[in-house]
Specification:
D-amino Acid Aminotransferase, Chain A, domain 1; 10 helices; seven-stranded antiparallel sheet; elongated; four-stranded antiparallel sheet
Length: about 400
Amino acid sequence: MANVGIREFDAKRMFFSYLWQSYNGKKITSLDDFSSLETQKKYVIKPDQLFGKRGKLGLIWVKLTLDEVKKWFWEKNNTEISIKETKGILDTFLLEEFIPHTDEYYVAIKGERDYDEIFFSNFWGIDVEENWEKVQSIKVWVLENINEQKLSEIFQIKDEKILQVIIQLFSFYRNEDFTYLEVNPFCFDERNGDLVVLDMVAKVDDTAFFLHPETWQNLEFPNTFGFEENARERYIKELDQKTGASLKMKFLNTNWKIWTLLSWGGGSLVMTDTLWYLWYDKEIANYWELSGDPDRFYTREYTKVLFEQMLDSPKPKYLIIAGAIANFTQIDKTFTGIIDILEEKSEEIRKKWIQILVRRWGLNDKIWLKLLSDACEKLWIPCKVADSNVYMTDILKEIKL
């Protein structure tokens, strides 16, 4: 299962389609995309590449003529920009008609484990985070429906149109399997009162794709800004979309020495943060997560890709196989998949002198830790195995660089 960001264009297109309304936005990637636009209208253009603060970065231009918007696109397209330490190329833009309006409103919906939380404020825009005390919120538990009266009272909404927009957004969010939806801001066309969504940020649960064969048609899952995935990362991403488990893979520097095969998202962060704290930040080769009870096939494929990438590098390495309490993940499936690949690639692993450090806990952990240890011993692969008597991060003390 993965919560993945989608383009603003797709989020708005899906939302207005959900309301049985038309959407006037266009995704712009070349000058050919301007061909059907009307010269008498004014336009808004901005990058649509999964990064925020576009207003503060000076990357939103409003009320432009068709010639002006073409010129702006010509100047910005395929240029490199830096956002903090991330560099990337601008290549995808969202163009919409400029709509005259007055009042604007902020609303966001965020999914938690047992509830969804709705946020609302009359204070909107690029400084909403700096003025978060002006934002009200309400929790809607997973098995509950939205309470309109409670919503109106907590958010102090007197205008029925505003209330209905929040209800429509929440219905769209839940029924279309979104995990995060932010509109900052929305307003109403002063000419006819129609709803206008000026800015939208959205994430979906991509494993729900099969539930929405029509509304998710042509839905794109772009990479985060500045990240270019290789073929192996793309393959794992495709596998992740086919399973309810969580398969994450990102190579940081494939020439570095410390590689990880971590279970449980929180555990993955703990281990990565600890490596950073121990001054190994310049040796962390990857960020990976294998959790959510993957079966033998998915574990084997995941581990195979990991070793293929490791073995491409000439340096000796450590592989850390670790995780917290496997409260529902059956580690026999996980370890069986790992052992399959150890047997398949044992000769190459020995030649590269890859050392394996293991700390895992879960159902029948002692049995499977021993099986993994015995397999490594049989294959002459250096391996140190620890169970729940050892802190998850203590295994890192075995690293000697």
